Amino acid sequence: MDSIPFHNYRRSTRVPLKVAIEVLRGNERFMCEAQTIVVNLHGALISSTVALSTDLHISIHVHLTDKRANARVVYIDPQNPFCCGVELDAPRNIWGVSLPPDDWRDRQREFESGLDDLCSD
To answer: Looking at domain 15-120, which CATH architecture does it have?
Structure first.
């Protein structure tokens, strides 16, 4: 049996970070407190006070940075429905990571460059 080499397919490096956030659902008056467990430029693994559902569109407010971003719930831990993965609509360091990994800066520049290309057409 051939062994297949492992490749890291993450879009950006994960950083363990515990930070308080607020999760809001669309235009509804739904809000819950949550906390990040691991973050990256594209999203986070969070622990919420309310069970969320996959494909739910949410808005995240990070208390530490006072930054906000739209996101989507992409994963629910089958063993703990209060633990879920969220994907930001656009890659951004909303988390307050003061010394982000090098690939965060590279990915951010790539994303912003793509937006510039779209806007100049």
So the answer is: Beta Barrel (2.40)
